[in-house]
């Protein structure tokens, strides 16, 4: 039997389960609701394996004072269920999001607070770090990363 992999846009409410499992295990579901989830041009991508949601990523229109670019988006909640890590699904979500942003605005600039454990993943796609590392209490050490798409 062949496996079907599909990425499609999903509502904010659909991303919470994967966020909880991967990014906030053992925490209240309310911590998986992020500011900006339902505003403006925010969109959420879900990666489905045979109709089961196994990965999510959210792209929010949000400016960071560190940058002067006009068309800034923030990547949040990038997560692939642990049993499916390392199979290219994170790559597919990131590439799809980048392409959607390029269709949405003229000069998209993508930034995010990267977990220190994921820095090397993002570097593979040309993202750079800026500034000092900082702690997100109860989560882990992060650093800002960015790229002009
Ligand atoms: C980080 C994450 C989204 C990557 O998704 P993934 O599906 O596992 O990644 P891919 O299989 O597409 O990996 C692409 C490449 O990056 C590498 N890679 C993936 N995660 C990595 C990591 N954390 N550190 C270093 N390299 C990593 C892979 O080995 C692969 O390398 P290759 O091209 O040389 O084979 C996923 O592992 C995850 O959800 N991690 C836990 C939550 C997390 O850290 N999210 C990011 C928050 S900022």
Description:
This protein is of the alpha+beta class. The protein has one domain (5-148): 3-Layer(aba) Sandwich (Aminopeptidase). It is built from three helices and seven strands, in the order E-H-E-E-E-H-E-H-E-E. The chain has helices spanning 12-23, 89-104, 119-123; strands spanning 5-10, 43-49, 52-61, 72-80, 109-115, 128-136, 140-148. Strands 1-2-3-4-5-7-6 form a seven-stranded mixed sheet, with helices on both faces. Strand 4 (72-80), helix 2 and strand 5 (109-115) form a beta-alpha-beta unit. The model has no long low-confidence stretch (mean pLDDT 96). It binds coenzyme A. Coenzyme A (COA) binds at residues 22-23, 78-80, 85-91, 114-115, 117-118, 120-121, 124.
Write down the CATH topology. Aminopeptidase
Large-scale geometry: globular
Q: Helix content range of the residues, please?
A: 10-25%
Can you say what the CATH homologous superfamily is? Answer: Gcn5-related N-acetyltransferase (GNAT)
Largest sheet: 7 strands, mixed
What is the spatial order of strands in the main beta sheet? 1-2-3-4-5-7-6
* Structural class by SSE content: alpha+beta
Number of helices: 3
Ligand names = coenzyme A
Number of strands: 7
Named CATH architecture: 3-Layer(aba) Sandwich
What is the strand content? 35-45%
| Number of structurally distinct domains | 1
According to CATH, what is the class?
A: Alpha Beta
Using only C-alpha atoms, the radius of gyration works out to 15 Å
Euclidean distance between termini CA atoms: 38 Å
Mean pLDDT: 96
Series of H and E elements: EHEEEHEHEE
Any low-confidence stretches, pLDDT <50, length ≥5?
A: none
């Amino acid at each position: 039997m062949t496996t079907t992999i599909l990425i499609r846009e999903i509502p904010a409410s659909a991303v919470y389960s994967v966020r909880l499992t991967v990014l906030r295990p053992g925490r209240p579901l309310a911590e998986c609701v992020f500011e900006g989830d339902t505003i403006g041009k925010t969109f959420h991508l879900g990666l489905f394996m045979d109709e089961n949601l196994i990965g999510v990523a959210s792209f929010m229109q949000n400016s960071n004072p560190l940058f002067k670019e006009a068309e800034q988006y923030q990547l949040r909640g990038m997560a692939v269920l642990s049993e499916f890590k390392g199979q290219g699904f994170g790559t597919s979500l990131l590439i799809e999001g980048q392409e959607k942003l390029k269709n949405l605005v003229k000069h998209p600039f993508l930034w995010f607070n990267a977990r220190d454990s994921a820095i090397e993943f993002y570097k593979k796609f040309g993202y750079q770090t800026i500034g000092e590392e900082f702690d997100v209490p109860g989560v882990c050490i992060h650093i800002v990363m960015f790229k002009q798409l």
